[in-house]
Amino acid sequence: MEELCAELYTQEKIRGFLHLYIGEEAVVTGVMSLLRPQDNVMATYREHAHALLKGVSANSIMAEMFGKIEGCSKGRGGSMHLISAHDRFFGGNAIVAAGIPQAVGLALASKKLNEDRQTVCFFGEGAMAEGVFHESLNMAELWKIPLLFCCENNYYAMGTAIERSQAQLNLSKKAEAHNVTSQSVDGMNIFEVIKKTKEALDFIKREGRPYFLEFRTYRFRAHSMFDPELYRSKEEVIGWKEKDPIHYLVDYMKEKNILPIETLQNLEKKVEEEMQKAISFAENSEDEPLQDLEKYLYENDL
Amino acid sequence: MKMTYREALREGLRSALDNNEKVFLIGEDVGAYGGTYAVTKDFLKLYGPERIFDAPLSENGFTGIGVGAAMGGLRPIVEIMTVNFALLALDQIVNSAAAFRHMSGGQISVPLVIRTTTGGGRQVAAQHSNSFEGWFTHIPGIKILAPATVEDARTFLHFALQDHDPVMIFEHALLLNRSEEVGEKPQMISPYKAMLRKRGSKLTLITYGGMLHRCLEATEGRSDVEVIDLRSLRPLDTETIFSSVRKTHRTLIVDEGWRSGSLSAEISARIMESCFYDLDAPVQRLCRREVPIPYARHMELAAIPQVPEISAKIEEMLL
Predict the structure, then answer these.
(1) Is B129 contained in some domain?
(2) Do B68 and B154 share a domain, yes or no?
(3) Can you give the CATH number for the domain in which B146 is found?
(4) Number of domains in chain B
(5) CA-CA distance, A256 to A253, in Å (whole number)?
(6) Over the stretch A190-218, which tens digit does the pLDDT of each residue have?
């Protein structure tokens, strides 16, 4: 989907800001494989994969990026604000770290309403420089609010390398400073992601407290479509690409003889078909009527 | 019976907490301390820590928790000690609470109530004396209420909690000890209707919050000035404003906020857009002087509209 988005962007079908998740796939795939439809997820502006894996249909995601009314947010959010109340997917928040206290609030609501939900909040390592990250972890631990904080550490906040922006590079320590139990995980290895996330979710359920996971991963593509990548070397990118989480998984399964070549080919074909279907769905979807511009500002339009 | 503004706020909060299990209070010093202005005294004992959250000094963080809890089905009441500190929570209020319903195509509502105190006049200097309610009226997606009377202080929270959108209530710090005669039971009058606090024939005086009482004092004994208490600053009840202006043909706006880029400017512009040919004279404004509020008593008094200044302005306009 992400490769196609880049293509559609150059064709000007998708406009605005577009942030691709290529390279980081193992993190969201592993974490989401352990979540249920009723669980709450809060994510960032690099959230296409998160939405898809939380159950938002490829059709409505693509239509959203095309700015059409059949998009999950009726074309009002675009790539950065994929939202689906039905799928308990709360965005798509494009203010760095703003989703973190909101996820704490969602988890608090589920706790107080005795609902059977877990809450997971995704953010990048850049968000950990924001004050509200620390405010949120402090309160989550202080008030024993059960949720999982997932830091997708791709080592760059836009173009600023983590060494150039944060004095403490061991991110788990930042969580531990607030007494939040934490672990660092190889985010390029889906088995590790699943294993550690399972441990974390079990802990949260058992202890009724928050947990922090740092997934070490890497963004293969530029920050957004406007980024000329002046801040990192080609060698560095190539080095990380050798750890491509998808290749790693495919090689592993081939090696163990659990993925026959036909199955893989069928899978790839199915994905391609679904994506083409999503694109034509988006193409054929309508624009929202202009007279609805001020609709949904308030519950009862004033 | 007599009731103070503080007691009225307290009654509103108690009734909200008593009648809805989903309501909880979160803010700095709302619990053990009893609220900076003693509005929530004993609440921690009465309702326990599950309903009354003494928050750390993390305005953006606990406002964000309120936003999330509201999205998740609770009815949080966030107390930001004073509007001055609300600036630390602007991101959550503006970029999330106000935006989510529209940005999500109507899927996500944020039924959040934020209470905060506003206004100057207590010699607490520049960083504790702001009147930023006008700023917040700039933002589509939130509603802004400013109770000026004891009755309104008693009932606005009820209306805010009926709403499924974010509502901010600005309580004026100077009114807390104000006592007024009220009925046994609260009178539920929608905040979205501006009230004529006084009828008059020759001048419409538009005001709200802490300035209302100064305006009423300045017009005591006069029958030529009509005093409108806006009550809701967003949405504005322009119907009430316009019909009064069309009757009196003269308007004075008294606003405790600064003049530049302000609520008073907005009201004036709307009157010009809709009532230009009904006006006999240009709309006039009395606002806070354009300086950070100084500590020294005489300087502070000079910086914020006072009764004699309002009276003089009325005289000048009715000459």
Answers:
(1) yes
(2) yes
(3) 3.40.50.970
(4) 2
(5) 5
(6) 999 999 999 999 999 999 999 999 999 99
Distance in Å, alpha carbon of A300 to nearest chain B alpha carbon: 9
Contacts of B164 in chain A (CB under 8 A): 299
When CB atoms are compared, the residue of A81, A93, A109 closest to B74 is A109
Buried b (16+ CB within 10 A) or exposed e, B276-290: eeebeeebbbbbbee
Residue B190 counted as domain residue: no
Using one digit for the tens of pLDDT, what is the confidence trace for A213-244? 999 999 999 988 888 899 999 999 999 999 99
In a domain, B93, yes or no: yes
- For A119, the closest chain B residue by CA position comes to B72
Is the predicted pLDDT of residue A301 greater than 90, yes or no? no
On the question of a cis peptide bond just before residue B186, with omega within 30 degrees of 0, the verdict is: no
| H helix count then E strand count, chain A | 12, 8
* Residue B9: domain span: 2-181
Pairing, β B143-145 against β B232-234: antiparallel
Q: Which residue has the tokens 């997606």?
A: B141
Same domain, residue pair B202 and B294: yes
Name residue A16's amino acid.
Answer: G
Written as one letter, the residue type at B122 is R
Centroid of chain to Cα B171:
5
Whether residues B42 and B171 fall in one domain = yes
Q: Are residues B62 and B133 in the same domain?
A: yes
Contact (CB<8Å) B63/A101? yes
Closest Cα in chain A to B71: A106
- B106 and A138 in contact by Cβ < 8 A? no
CATH 2.40.160.50 for the A2-289 domain, yes or no: no
CB-based burial label for A268 (10 Å; 0-12, 13-18, 19+): exposed
CA–CA dist A169, B226 (Å, integer): 64
Return all residues near A241 (Cβ < 8 A) that are at least 6 apart. A23, A220
Domain end marker among B181, B210, B240:
B181
CATH number of the domain encompassing residue B248 = 3.40.50.920
Contacts of B143 in chain A (CB under 8 A): 298
B128 noted as active-site residue: yes
Helix intervals (H) in chain B: 5-19, 43-47, 59-71, 83-86, 90, 100-103, 133-136, 150-162, 211-218, 238-248, 263-275, 297-303, 307-318
* ipTM entry: 0.96
Catalytic residue, chosen from B59, B171, B226, B266, is: B59
Tokens of B22: 């989903």
Read off the pLDDT band of A300 (50, 70, 90): confident
Percent of chain A whose predicted confidence (pLDDT) is above 90: 93
Token look-up 């009904």 returns B278
B131 occurs within a structural domain? yes
Whether B72 and A100 lie within 8 Å, measured CB to CB: no
Secondary structure element (H or E) that encloses residue A102, with its range:
helix A99-112
Instruction: In whole angstroms, give the CA distance from residue A226 to residue B313.
Output: 56
Class of residue B12 by CB neighbours under 10 A (exposed 0-12, middle 13-18, buried 19+): buried
Q: Are residues B124 and B9 in the same domain?
A: yes
Give the whole-angstrom CA distance, residue B285 versus residue B291.
17
Could you tell me if B175 and B267 lie in one domain?
A: no
Q: Are B165 and B110 in contact (CB under 8 A)?
A: yes
